[in-house]
Amino acid sequence: MAITLDGQIAQKQHSRLSAILGSQTFWVFMAVVAACIFLAFATDSFATTKNFYNITRNTTFVAIIALGMTFVIITGGIDLSVGSVLCLCSMVLAVVMHAGYSIEVGIAASIGTALLIGGFNGVLIAYLGFPPFVVTLGMLSIARSLAMVASNNTVVFEFGPDHDLLLALGGGAWLFGIANPVIYMVVLALLTGFVLRWTKFGRHVFAIGGNEHAAILTGVPVRPIKVAVYMISALSAGIAGIIQTGWLGAVTTNIGAGMELQVIAAAVIGGANLAGGAGTAIGAIIGAALIEVIRNSLGLLGINAFWQGTFIGGAIIVAVLFDRLRHVRQSD
Fold it and tell me: pTM of the full predicted structure?
């Protein structure tokens, strides 16, 4: 009996180790660690408190939106509008507060805008059968245009009576010197991980991405859940926009431009499958961290910043290749 029990324990440990070593998220994390160790020896300014503070803070904006994007990608969808939604929500917050309203009203208007856009995208995709690529590509243009209209294409840098409170919200460090955006990211990551792993909603999201037809046959409310995930994606962009406005202290109509590539890259590099059915909160965070380490290292090593897109695009291709090789091994 003891031998059997020991054998079962050894088998569980072996299977757990195999699962970890076969996880894309694990290898991306190791790549981040290896890059940090290399840069710590290759440069004098990487392993400094100030630089780590900047890396962790800069990671948060992509990471927060990547958490919402993960929901969409797990269902087999895509949201190309997140950068423009961030811009519009930031501008709504800025314009409302500039008009003299409180920060609570500004945040409510910004969040409401995000949910409205996400709901609009979701209804077109889930109920009218529009392709996610087409809908969100159209919204990418619409949202940024509305941001220009709202501000008359000007920079907003005065936020009314709660100006200082907004700057402290996004740029402060209220807990143990940790940047506030990092705390928000950790809280949202824990919430996302809980929802995906432990709730019926999370199981339904994975079921839709795994086999939508089978999910319908088993009674999963596919259409409402699809609407919900696009609302979550837009909401994450809105939250990131609010935080980034407080961090920057100003809003322009080019804020968030091209951010959708980095967000999708973070989710995919972290293990989300563009075909649907796979994705984790921790993977989105680690993917965003790798992107920020790449961006940070280019400047420290004196490499032209124009190479950033090449490295990020290459990381996406490697991540997809890793996923394909894993599926080939499992099918053999």
Answer: 0.90
CA–CA distance from 236 to each of 6, 87, 102, 110 (Å)?
46, 12, 22, 11
pLDDT in tens, 141-194: 999 999 999 988 888 888 989 999 999 999 888 888 888 999 999 999 999 999
d(CA 46, CA 36): 8
Q: What are the Cα distances from residue 211, in Å, to 38, 74, 105, 119? A: 42, 11, 41, 23
Contact criterion met (CB below 8 Å) for 322 and 28: no
Amino acid in position 277: G
Nearest alpha-carbon partner for 55 in 71, 40, 72: 40
CATH topology of domain 25-331: ABC transporter involved in vitamin B12 uptake, BtuC (1.10.3470)
Contacts of 251 (CB under 8 A, 6+ apart): 87, 90, 91, 93, 94, 151, 155, 156, 157, 245
Helices H, strands E: what count in the chain? 14, 0
Residues 6+ apart with CB under 8 A from 22: 326
**CA-to-CA distance for 31 and 287, rounded, in angstroms?**
10
The residues near 250 (Cβ < 8 Å, ≥ 6 apart) are: 155, 156, 157
Task: Please name the residue ranges forming H helices in 23-81.
Answer: 24-42, 49-74
Query: In whole angstroms, what is the distance from residue 330 CA to residue 267 CA?
Result: 22
As given in the structure block, the two tokens for residue 326 are 């894993």
